[in-house]
Amino acid sequence: MKITGEGPVSWNRVRAAYQQAARVKGNDRPDKARREEDYVQLSPDSRFINDLKTRLAGEEDIRSTRVEAIRARLAAGTYNVPAADVADAILKEMGR
């Protein structure tokens, strides 16, 4: 069997290669310098969504009085939704 190459592994060269890769990634900068460069900028849409989430967090998810009224109408057989209203709602939900 013939083995070619530079001979035994030089661990100093391996360590130097890892350190060089770390410097390329910016890991050799002080933490303070990295913190000053890092920032987050939210778009107006994301701020709007965050505001809505905050407002809705305090509200009840299920309007229990409305749910009970619909349940009563379903039980009595008087709850009827026109098919055109259902179709419109589906299309609206799909964004058309």
UniProtKB/TrEMBL annotation:
The keyword Transcription regulation applies. Keywords: Bacterial flagellum biogenesis, Repressor, Transcription, Transcription regulation. The keyword Repeat does not apply. SUPFAM superfamilies: Anti-sigma factor FlgM. It comes from the Bacteria. It holds the Pfam family FlgM. GO terms for biological process: bacterial-type flagellum organization; negative regulation of DNA-templated transcription. Residues 38-92 form the Anti-sigma-28 factor FlgM C-terminal domain. InterPro entries: Anti-sigma-28_factor_FlgM_sf (IPR035890), FlgM (IPR007412), FlgM_C (IPR031316). Belongs to the FlgM family. This is Negative regulator of flagellin synthesis. It comes from Neomoorella thermoacetica (Clostridium thermoaceticum).
